[in-house]
Amino acid sequence: MIFRIPVFLAIGASYALPAQSPQVFLAELFSHYDPPGQIREYSPFNRKDTLFAPELLDLMLREEKAAQGEVGYFDGDPICDCQDDSLSNIVIKAVPKGRDRSSAKVFFANYGHQDTLGYDLLYLGGRWKIAEIKSSREPSLRKGLREWLKQYGPRAASKQR
């Protein structure tokens, strides 16, 4: 079954899912990137606590603190793994992994370049949250953040003394 919400959604296996499906969560999230070419005032960093699962959120908050207002690990938007976006042809395919877990792939074009990102989602506190983001450039956002914090976190902590 395919739904049209401003993006196309392809539904995977049939598990009894919570009220909001992973597809709807991601469609709402990616609706902020549509339509292409328009100026938007959206940043996932302004919604960290509602978008990201606790482990990933903790890493993001530690990165933010270690960066001390400078560019840190993130030099772009982790949702689309891009600095500038003009996303189009967005297709979301989610596969439930049980009642409170799902994996998804999001296919889209950004300035004409085809891209695919993977997401691991957890259902926590009555909503879906992102536990991991994977791309061809960044196979694991959590791993990348951990490695960055190992390298730059201690230096930032020593500057504060």
CATH architecture: Roll
How would a crystallographer describe the biggest sheet? 6 strands, mixed
Elements, N to C (H/E): EEHHHEEEEH
Distance N to C terminus = 57 Å
Per DSSP E runs of 2 or more residues, the count of β-strands stands at: 6
Going by helix content, strand content and strand pairing, the class is alpha+beta
Number of helices: 4
- Please report which band the strand proportion falls in: under 5%, 5-15%, 15-25%, 25-35%, 35-45% or over 45%: 25-35%
**Radius of gyration of CA atoms, rounded to a whole number:** 16 Å
Query: Number of folding domains?
Result: 1
Biggest sheet, spatial arrangement of strands: 1-2-3-4-5-6
- CATH fold topology: Nuclear Transport Factor 2, Chain: A
Mean pLDDT: 81
- Unreliable sequence segments: 1-17, 156-161
CATH class: Alpha Beta
Overall 3D form: globular
